[in-house]
Task: inverse folding
């Protein structure tokens, strides 16, 4: 598919780059193939990259944080070395141009770039102005720009938006698609996508991917299901010839036909996407999260060539290797008085008395267009030690509801009781000590000079001092595994670490309940895993009650035995997470996309003619259901390096492993990635 | 106050005016309000501005601003008699408060002037969207880089207001109390609010600049402008009429009308 | 002085202008402590921004503060002829810190404004700068507003000076302490962004005199203006004339004084 006759869109030779200015760069020969210590933050990020991006390909670049993925992309449009000078050596030729001697704005005529953070890429005062911005910069005649706006908004699925609307009022998904339209309107020959969906919710992700997919399908003849419905925008432009994308999500990576694994600043493996993503050894070595279905079938002893990538391929793969599906039993779905079967992560098992009782809660926002009812008569009880997930569309009221739990909102009608008493009757510090609230973005609270001061801020406000305060802070930092970094500047941490600082600030007040508001948005797979492991430990060992608002169905499946689905301010489902994932209609109604493992079990059940079978919620359960007779320990065939990079899965048996192994290098090199963004 | 723009999306003829013509119209109101000291003359632009504001759907905006207008009006009435000489018959004589006719009229005229400026300004922002403001600025010859900065600031502003609200909630959930203590302590308690607000803003500057250049932004290169509005018949009529009014009121004033 | 204009060539500086403006406006409106007379006098924590941004971002802070104040007017409903005064006043508010840090010989600390080294001297230096910047902003706005016949100079001048200086003096040191090292690490300080040839470094012999001029002139202007303004009758025209003189002298001082931070951080 990647025929070399079409030529090469981008050619990198011996590319070495460091963000530090005036650094003496070593000869790439000496950097070469030696294994780079991931803890080594010094020195170049790119360490002798040789890469040909085939023209006409959709190439995906993957690798561990700090491996240089984003840095690599920035050499494609001269951001490096024109905009970020750093220390650079090597040759980069893109679309017949010498990048090292070209300005970013000149490269922009041929290379379009879409980044993760949409807020940082919107400059226009209206939808139309935003799309027009790029073409205007390229001096496209105004008459032609009008057509481009129409075409690219349609391509992005935004044709129904009022052109005069201000971007700030759009949803995150719409904003990112608007940026995408703005980039596409420049008619790039090479489109560069740097984790374009990392900040989006599932529906936003799906819509953007569909836009990218149709653009890819328009010109690049490839990929299963690339339909011909894609609109060829204008006669003189029918999509980019080549797409290069960085992502850490496997569903997205599967859009590509060509894959590159980076490790330690060099290319570790390159080839057709399917081959690369089923090459378990290479994925592990380059510390890329292994696709869950690949991991499950690998554990079942299926050879690389037969590993399924998507749920639809699972029944055939199982069949071929004589694996029979035994769905999880129905016994565990009824919650007993004293406990529940818990989630695969062994969370939410020991339940105590009710801590929260919500009755007919109503909450309205005042807007210019009158009051909007965000919460419309919700009743819920949360018991001690429970892990409850609140899910639903954007605007379904889940965050508004969660903010009632620590008094950030007071109900307009109905009652919210904590420990038998109205939340409104507590002082802010009274409820604040018991009920911690972890906001989505840790940067909205971090201000202090050192980690210690930051963590001590809450407890101090709540009246703690002296020895007691020191002890609490110390213990909280130990819990979040940041001990030893007390005097560091939290601002310089990676996003995952910053989120853990925020959590420590809550833990130091010794709360009974912690409410999480989408705590893992914007974190990569490893960071997400590590954070959720921490939450699980708190629940298991200190019976902290957990309420989490989340979009991550994978997190819900593995960590929350109970889920409440909200829609238009009302609860439309409240019960066992496994039952939720068995109800396809309910999921579809609420725009909830179950994880691959769940979908795979549905495929298996359907193939076996089993109605009403409950799905597996974790890789372990899937493996167990397929290989019960095989009697293999989950790690029997995995060798010592198995833990590395398997962060995408966690299950009861391996919790402790993961907690401990949690990849000491991970934070160090995440810092590098963050630093890249910050420069 | 909310972050929402004061722009009211309607289709009135003032809305449809080119931003430059709206500016000329409002300028005529400002000049008329400025030129006359006599409150009976200054009342004319005030009425015109106020009626226009009502006609374009600006009542909610006026209502929102009315405490400020009222406060400034009262302050003007109290303060200005102290800064002008007495004249004419005494109209108020209550204890220590002695006001001559001239002082009273002067103060009333000044207070009306404040009201004219605010209502006239409201008329402009009610009928001119952010986008029209920015493209209008460019069309009266202000350099593109500057207009771009204004436009981007207008686009970022609501985002930062939201962020400020979230930061406030996050720190209050951690026990921050903004209403406690004396002036200095209260001001100090803003530090945990201000640092996250502006560090999140500046953290993105490098990414934003990178995205900007990747979109072809280059102040040293020619660019085109999409959707530049052109002045239509009505626009010219309004602009010329406004200029005539300005010349007219200046003439009246020079002829001695409207003074005290 | 040409960096005021040449900074518009640099993408990061332009972006800084926009972000400074948006942050200033976004904090100006919702965060107020004491509102004494709505619309005229309230102590706003945001008023610390032009001073500290000026020290760190130089000309971008001047333009950003001016635009931010304008946006505050547009969204707050106080857009009008007075906005011209607000624009020029806030421009100066942001410019003074840029011009004065390190230049107030012999009181200057001559170190980076992070309040770590020589903190006592830094506090003194900062307080003088904060008051000078607040005063410059106050006299310009009060002058324009008086010129427009809205509020007398004697009322508005001292009010703005007090409001601005309280916020700037109280909040500046902790904010610089917490943010200067971080912004420096991010490479956003103006000495890192402006090209060396665009920086008008402090070399002239007149430099210290002009620097102190930037401190003294606004305060004298305020004092004399207050006296003239309350002097009734003839006051109005003389306030106007005083302002015309004041603004010319201020501008002259601004042109003569060269910035010093780039020397302190060792970039020029």
Result:
């Amino acid at each position: 598919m990647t025929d070399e006759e079409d030529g090469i869109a981008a050619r990198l030779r011996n590319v070495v780059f460091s963000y530090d200015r005036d650094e003496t760069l070593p000869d790439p020969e000496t950097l070469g193939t030696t294994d780079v210590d991931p803890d080594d933050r010094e020195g170049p990020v790119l360490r002798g990259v040789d890469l040909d991006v085939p023209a006409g390909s959709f190439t995906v670049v993957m690798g561990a944080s700090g491996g240089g993925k984003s840095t690599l992309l920035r050499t494609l449009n001269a951001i490096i070395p024109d905009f970020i000078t750093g220390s650079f050596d090597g040759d980069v030729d893109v679309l017949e141009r010498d990048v090292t001697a070209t300005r970013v704005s000149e490269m922009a005529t041929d290379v379009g770039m879409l980044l993760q953070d949409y807020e940082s890429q919107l400059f226009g005062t209206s939808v139309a102005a935003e799309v027009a911005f790029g073409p205007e910069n390229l001096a496209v005649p105004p008459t032609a720009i009008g057509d481009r706006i129409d075409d690219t908004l349609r391509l992005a699925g935004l044709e129904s938006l009022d052109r005069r609307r201000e971007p700030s009022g759009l949803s995150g998904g719409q904003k990112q698609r608007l940026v995408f339209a703005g980039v596409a309107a420049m008619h790039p020959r090479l489109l560069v996508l740097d984790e374009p969906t990392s900040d989006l919710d599932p529906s936003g992700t799906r819509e953007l991917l569909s836009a990218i997919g149709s653009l890819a399908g328009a010109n690049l003849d490839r990929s299963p299901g690339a339909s011909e419905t894609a609109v060829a925008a204008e006669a003189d432009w029918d999509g980019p010839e080549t797409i290069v994308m960085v992502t850490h999500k496997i569903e997205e990576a599967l859009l590509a036909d060509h894959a590159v694994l980076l490790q330690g600043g060099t290319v570790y493996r390159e080839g057709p996407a399917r081959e690369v993503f089923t090459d378990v050894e290479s994925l592990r070595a380059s510390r890329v999260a292994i696709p869950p279905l690949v991991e499950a079938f690998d554990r079942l002893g299926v050879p690389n060539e037969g590993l399924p990538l998507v749920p639809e391929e699972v029944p055939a793969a199982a069949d071929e290797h004589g694996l029979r599906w035994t769905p999880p039993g129905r016994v565990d779905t009824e919650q007993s008085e004293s406990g529940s079967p818990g989630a695969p992560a062994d969370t939410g098992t020991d339940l105590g008395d009710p801590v929260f009782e919500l009755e007919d809660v109503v909450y309205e926002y005042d807007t210019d267009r009158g009051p909007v009812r965000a919460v419309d008569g919700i009743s819920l009880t949360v018991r001690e030690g429970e892990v409850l997930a609140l899910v639903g569309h954007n605007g379904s009221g889940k965050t508004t509801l969660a903010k009632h739990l620590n008094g950030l909102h007071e109900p307009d009608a109905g009652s919210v009781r904590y420990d038998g008493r109205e939340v409104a009757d507590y002082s802010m510090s009274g409820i604040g000590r018991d009920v911690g609230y972890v906001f989505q973005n840790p940067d909205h609270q971090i201000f202090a000079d050192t980690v210690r001061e930051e963590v001590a801020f809450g407890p101090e406000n709540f009246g703690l001092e002296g020895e007691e305060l020191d002890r609490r802070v110390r213990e909280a930092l130990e819990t979040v595994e940041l001990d030893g970094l007390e005097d560091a500047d939290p601002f310089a941490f990676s996003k995952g670490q910053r989120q853990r600082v925020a959590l420590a600030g809550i833990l130091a007040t010794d709360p009974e309940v912690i409410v999480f508001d989408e705590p893992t948005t914007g974190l990569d797979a490893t960071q997400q895993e590590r954070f959720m492991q921490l939450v699980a430990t708190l629940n298991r060992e200190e019976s902290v009650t957990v309420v989490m608002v989340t979009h991550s169905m994978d997190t819900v499946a593995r960590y929350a035995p109970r889920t409440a689905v909200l829609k238009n301010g009302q609860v439309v489902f409240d019960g066992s997470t496994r039952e939720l994932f068995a109800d396809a209609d309910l999921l579809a109604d609420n725009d909830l996309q179950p994880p691959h493992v769940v979908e795979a079990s549905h495929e298996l059940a359907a193939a076996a003619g089993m109605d009403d079978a409950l799905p597996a919620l974790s890789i372990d359960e899937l493996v167990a259901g397929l290989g019960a007779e095989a009697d293999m320990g989950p790690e029997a065939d995995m060798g010592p390096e198995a833990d590395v990079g398997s962060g995408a899965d966690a299950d009861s048996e391996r919790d402790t492993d993961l907690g401990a192994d949690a990849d000491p290098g991970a934070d160090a090199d995440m810092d590098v990635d963050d630093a890249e963004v910050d420069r | 106050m909310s972050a929402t723009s004061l722009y009211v999306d309607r289709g009135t003829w003032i809305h449809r005016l080119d931003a430059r013509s709206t500016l000329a119209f409002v300028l005529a109101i400002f000049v008329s309000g400025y030129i006359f000291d006599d409150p009976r003359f200054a009342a004319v632009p005030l009425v015109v501005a106020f009626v226009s504001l009502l006609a374009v759907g600006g009542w909610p905006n006026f209502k929102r601003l009315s405490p400020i207008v009222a406060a400034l009006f009262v302050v003007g009435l109290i303060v200005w008699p102290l800064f002008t000489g007495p004249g004419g018959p005494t109209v108020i004589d209550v204890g220590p408060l002695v006001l001559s006719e001239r002082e009273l009229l002067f103060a009333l005229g000044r207070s009306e002037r404040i009201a004219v400026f605010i209502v006239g300004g409201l008329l402009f922002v009610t009928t001119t969207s952010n986008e029209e403001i920015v493209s209008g600025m460019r069309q009266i010859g202000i350099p593109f880089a500057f207009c771009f900065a204004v436009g981007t600031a207008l686009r970022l502003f609501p985002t930062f207001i939201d962020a400020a609200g979230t930061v406030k909630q996050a720190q209050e959930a951690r026990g921050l109390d903004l209403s406690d203590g004396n002036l200095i302590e209260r001001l100090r308690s803003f530090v945990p609010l201000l640092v996250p607000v502006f560090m999140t803003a500046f953290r993105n500057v490098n990414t934003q600049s990178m995205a900007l250049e990747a979109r072809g932004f280059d102040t040293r290169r020619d660019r085109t402008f999409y959707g530049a509005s052109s002045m239509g018949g009505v626009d010219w009529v309004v602009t010329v009429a406004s200029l005539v009014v300005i010349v007219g009121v200046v003439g009246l004033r020079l002829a001695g009308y409207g003074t005290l | 002085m040409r960096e005021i204009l040449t900074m518009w060539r640099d993408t990061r500086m332009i972006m800084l202008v926009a972000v400074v403006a948006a942050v200033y406006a976004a904090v100006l409106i919702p965060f107020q402590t004491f509102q004494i007379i709505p619309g005229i006098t309230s102590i706003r924590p945001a008023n610390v921004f032009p001073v500290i941004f000026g020290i760190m971002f130089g000309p971008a802070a001047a333009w950003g503060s001016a635009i931010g104040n304008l946006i505050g007017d547009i969204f707050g409903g106080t857009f009008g002829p007075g906005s011209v005064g607000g624009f020029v006043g806030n421009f100066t508010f942001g410019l003074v810190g840029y011009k004065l840090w390190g230049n107030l010989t012999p009181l200057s600390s001559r170190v980076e404004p992070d309040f770590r080294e020589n903190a006592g001297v830094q506090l003194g230096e900062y307080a003088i700068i904060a008051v000078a910047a607040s005063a410059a902003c106050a006299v310009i706005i009060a002058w324009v507003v008086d010129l427009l016949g809205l509020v007398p100079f004697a009322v508005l001048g001292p009010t703005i000076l007090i409001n601005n200086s309280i916020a700037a003096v109280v909040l500046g040191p902790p904010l610089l302490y917490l943010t200067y090292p971080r912004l420096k690490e991010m490479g956003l300080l103006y000495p890192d962004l402006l090209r060396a040839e665009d920086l008008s470094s402090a070399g002239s012999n007149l430099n210290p005199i002009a620097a102190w001029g930037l401190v003294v002139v606004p305060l004298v202007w305020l004092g004399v203006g207050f006296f003239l303004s309350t002097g009734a009758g003839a006051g109005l025209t003389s306030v106007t004339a005083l302002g015309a003189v004041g603004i010319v002298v201020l501008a002259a001082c601004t042109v003569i004084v060269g910035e010093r931070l780039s020397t302190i951080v060792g970039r020029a």
User: Anything to note?
Assistant: Chain A has 26 helices and 20 strands. Chain A touches chain B through 74 residues (CB under 8 Å). Residues 288-323+598-662 of chain A form one domain.
